[in-house]
Amino acid sequence: MKELPNNKRGKKRVLFDKPRSYIMGIPVIFWLLTIIITPVILMLIMSFRQKVGYDISNILTLSNYLEILKKPSYVKILLRSFRIALIASTLAIFASYPLAYYISRKIRKGRHLLFMLIIAPLWISYLVRIIAWRAILGNKGLINSTLMALGLIKEPLSFLLYNQFAVAITLTYIAIPFVFIPLYTALEKIPVNLIDAARDLGANEFHTFINVILPLCIPGLLTGFMLAFIISLGDYIIPMQLGGTGGMMLGNIIWSQFGFAFNWPLGAALGFVLFSIAAVILAITQKFGSREGMLYE
Amino acid sequence: MKDKESKWQVELVGVTKIYKDTIAVNNSNIKIKAGEFFSLLGPSGCGKTTTLRIIAGLEEPDEGKVFLEGRDVTNVPAHRRNVNTVFQDYAIFPHMSVYDNVYFPLKMRKISKKEADPRIKRVLKLVNLEGFEKRYSSQVSGGQRQRVASARALVNEPRVLLLDEPLGALDFKLRVSMQKVLKDIQRNLNITFIYVTHDQTEAITMSDRIAVMSQGLIHQIGTPDEIYNNPATAFVASFIGEMNFLEGLVASIPSSDTVEVSVSNKNILCKNSDQKISLNDGVLVSIRPEKVHVNPLQSLKNVIEAELSRIVFKGNNFEVTAKFDKCEVRSLVDYKVWDKSQKAGNRVKIGWNPEDVQVFPISMKKDMIQYE
What we know:
The complex is a heterodimer. Chain A is mainly alpha-helical. Chain A is 74% helix and 2% strand.
């Protein structure tokens, strides 16, 4: 990343510079406390309690966290969740970028219609879309029946469903609109005259893209990646529906702790681990994202 | 003239550009010499920027051809033309430092940073931007941004530099000093400048030649002197400088180079500048305010009795408006010459020489700039 401009570093934003601003801030603080901070704190406290029989004791201990570290399967699933989320969000970026690029920069008429078409799946039930993927990837699904009808295969391909591949593909699909929106916005915001200037100064289309367009849409790229990654990392419905035993993710374990395992403290501890990871990623991308965004004036 | 030995650096032949239902550039023919400071002047929307973009290769003409040094470049894309542009809002890359902005065109030519460094330093010195290399465009002032844009366009040593209202966003004092900087650069590097502006003073003071445009049409191409003193159309006369316009009818044509026009029953002798004008035609009579004398001491061929209606102090001179019948004539009178005891309502004589009066057919009135 580029060095921060001096005058930007020196400038401090004062949120409450007048006494009256405190009063204006009260609703915001109240809202943050009740909706975000309190539940997180409650979850944190829960993660330090312990399941005793069918009860939850009030003594605070680290045992849940120690158990997570001790059991290799938890670490393994955590790493797997990471890997799947990383693959899905990377694929979503590669799938969305050309779309966003062409719609924002090359198409003049019907741009808004195409934009709406891409984000239209967001209006359809999440579960329906997941089940639809089962219909596409299944033994008698779209892909297998097409290939069989064409005579390319005799037996249905079994590697399509109930594994990590199926989870990653479906997560990619779910994440595409969330990546597309910030990317499209960032690309559309790039002034046309910068592209004219690049061409005028001797850059062909490829060099203009590499030197001007790509660096200027980094904030959008990071935001999109972050959204896709966090959505994928915590998901449990897709692995449950399409993952089989090998495609299980951390979200499934957490879900089962709150469900039939009835171990809320362990579930809360696992949840908090996930939450912390997401928070760290958010902080990192925010830092780079806002830096780039600041230079973009 | 379209062979390799062409003496024209830039040549536009019958260039036309149409956007939807408006003709942005209408059959433009322009020839520009090497090392010339050539301005495209006109009000906004007259097609001057489109013309510039066609020369740059950022816009393709619907008809006509563009030649650079005799070579047909009509279908050559912008990045392969040896011309560079200083854009109206500078178009400085916000994610690059001043240094990297200036390096950009050299980088596109695959020149290493090490090799480019002395050239970048030289051009930054030329525009007086030493010490700003590491800054970003958000950290420099408007005038400095303008100079970054100029440096970036000059570093490639283009044969032709295109400037699209480069000083339009600057305040008056800065604009005047930047005019000098640009003019010096043009003279010292001997580069052809094609300069788009809507500011007639800027065009007149800086240019070797000017093309005056309106609604896609080129009305006149000429030196600043020709354009000021011999406007080809009523539009040029109204757009450049101050001008009095009076409507009248041709009363007689006493000789081949003079016409007599009747303006509300007063006859005015005018220069007949090769207009196809015949008896009883409706005409526009145009006189520059500085050519109108109030209570002239010398004897003039045109003298009219009028009433003073307004006297405005303008610093080094007075703008005096005199009325006869329904016609108003403005006059600019030097501070030292003006009789300060004169008041509005006084009867005066106003006069001018026939050589300073031009006539245009009344049909040209619709193209004129209307100041309301």
